[in-house]
Amino acid sequence: MARDINIGTPNLMDREVTVKHHTAADTLTTSESGSTHTNLGAGGAIKLTLPQDAPVGCWFQFVVMAAFALQIDPGAAGAIYIGGAKQTDDKYISADDEAESVMLVADSNGDWISLYETGTWSVEG
Q: Is the whole-model pTM more than 0.85?
């Protein structure tokens, strides 16, 4: 279950930012590009899967707001560049401490690039 909250225009690229709190697994869509996703209200680990058809520049922010793993999955055909390296295709990243965050942007090859990360993001083994 997800809830949308519009928080006005906080001068983040002069646009409204949608914050969606997820309590269960979800697959994001390209129409949600530019939004922030959290695990506030989750009772355990949840996995969010990035869209497989994302155009270059599609982006999402993720913030841990409950002390459970927030897993970000690039999907079967993609990988995430984080921590100075390209990770293995179809391996999720995860964090589980409040306020850990990451911003991911789609490249032209079906992969996702971390523009920033705070806290410790581990890679699926």
A: yes
